[in-house]
Design a protein that fits this description.
The complex is a heterodimer. By secondary structure, chain A is an alpha/beta fold. Chain A has two domains: 225 residues, no CATH class; 123 residues, no CATH class. Chain A has 14 helices and seven strands. In chain A, strands 1-7-6-5-4-2-3 form a seven-stranded mixed sheet, with helices on both faces. Chain A is globular and about 70 Å long. By secondary structure, chain B is an alpha/beta fold. Chain B contains five helices and four strands, in the order βαβαβαβαα. In chain B, helix 1 links the parallel strand 1 and strand 2. In chain B, helix 1 crosses helix 4. The chains are: A alpha/beta, B alpha/beta. Chains A and B meet through helix 9, helix 11, helix 12 and helix 14 of A and helix 2, helix 3, strand 4 and helix 5 of B.
Chain lengths: 376, 142
Amino acid sequence: MAKFAKVSFQKDEMNKKLSTFFKGMLDNGVVDAVLAPMVQSNNGVRLSLVTSPDHAPLLDPFAPVAAVSGAKIASSLTARPSGRSLAMVLHPCEIRAVVELSKLKQVNLDNVLLIGTDCLGRYENTDFVKFKKEGGTSEAFLGNALAGKTAVQDFDICGACKICEFPTAATADLNLVVLGAGSGDVYIEALTEKGEQALDKSGAGSSAAPAGRDEAVKKLVATRTEARDKTLAEYRDATNSFEALADKLANCVNCYNCRVACPVCYCKECVFVTDTFRHTGEQYMMWADQSGKLKMPNDTLFFHLIRMTHMSLSCVGCGQCTSACPNDIDLVPIFRAGAEKTQARFDYQAGRSFDEALPLSEFKSDEMEEVTGQVK
Amino acid sequence: MSDFEPQIVAFFCNWCTFTAADLAGTSRLSYPPNLKIIRVMCSGMVDPKYVVKAFLNGADGVLIGGCWPGDCHYINGNLKARRRVANVNEILKQFGIGEERFWLRWIAASEGTMLQEVAIEMTKKLKELGPSPLRSLAQAAV
């Protein structure tokens, strides 16, 4: 049975009240540092590593933005660990990517307390700046989003978020709960023993579970799942050939921003920037000779397909690839549709559990006989 | 399509399937010349890049030949190959290159006749299927 604590707040005081929780964590020595979204100058919100409780008031854990995937930051902070304990406040997609990276030994969770936030979506970075300029606050965003209204002026939450069926972080130690919490309240939910101890020690107290929680989550998941199925079905209808895929990717310039932004693109050195793909002029001429022409940069379709063979099993659908594309290619449906197929093949779901091995990291003698169709 | 000759890129492991091809040769078992055989040290070293690139460049089929489970010279390279093939198949399938064009087969060093059978069977199957839908795209050199 999950444990809860309740944080009640007056209008426009959500972050102020939540900051007392983070302050308590630092003051009471629950952790040495907190990584959480924090208000910056010029309307930005970025994950910040906070070691002094004095800075807690600027934390903005529910800010509807993820400028870069927090899973990559988690990797920077823990792949070579500091030895100090750290709480990370991340979106559910980031936490699921952290799960994947921990299996790849690129995140070390030994001294980490994972804190998930209920997620109603994020805006693109440039839209978030507009949102802030218009006086938008996380509290107001949550209020509107919980009522189903996320669009502001001419922008809305990311396409990836609209089709994300994981609005809560199931593998976190603690969750900051707004779904089903009712207005004026945020709950802190402890999902693990580690989380319970942290919650006790933080001085946040304890309370009953929010009554509408399960129903609210179920409802949002159903809406999102329906949107996902619709989007992916439309995508698949329109993209059932390599020609159609090449058309979708026609604007690609091989900048590899999608690969850089992707939290689960795990290769330390991407093969596409190695000598394997540094060809001689003679080689390019030969390729051009084959049909009399060669589009440059070449290998754009090849890049995306190979990226998919690498990371689709760990794809969490966070949408950073689409956000990072300078040429407005919507990569999310391509990769989510691919990931749905590959993950289903191995009965795997990225970020679902720490206990499931990555499909390409374990193999058995007596399995998948349908691949060859041969039985000795 | 009776005069269509499929191009099959075949990656054969050094220890089993390539040796089986040798055996087929020395045993004078003839098989279709549609296979372009590439000897690799293990089916487990066939990177998805090789497979995808072969298709993007217009191959009608790709065949990987490895040792039977339990017989791998490197203990388990073939088992890794099997998972990788399943993974790549799921991706290629979405865009019209189905499992019928991308095969993994276990062919032991002693199974020269099986190599002949697989070569004949795959060539026949691909002749029925016709040219790869990627041939026209290969011309566009994407």
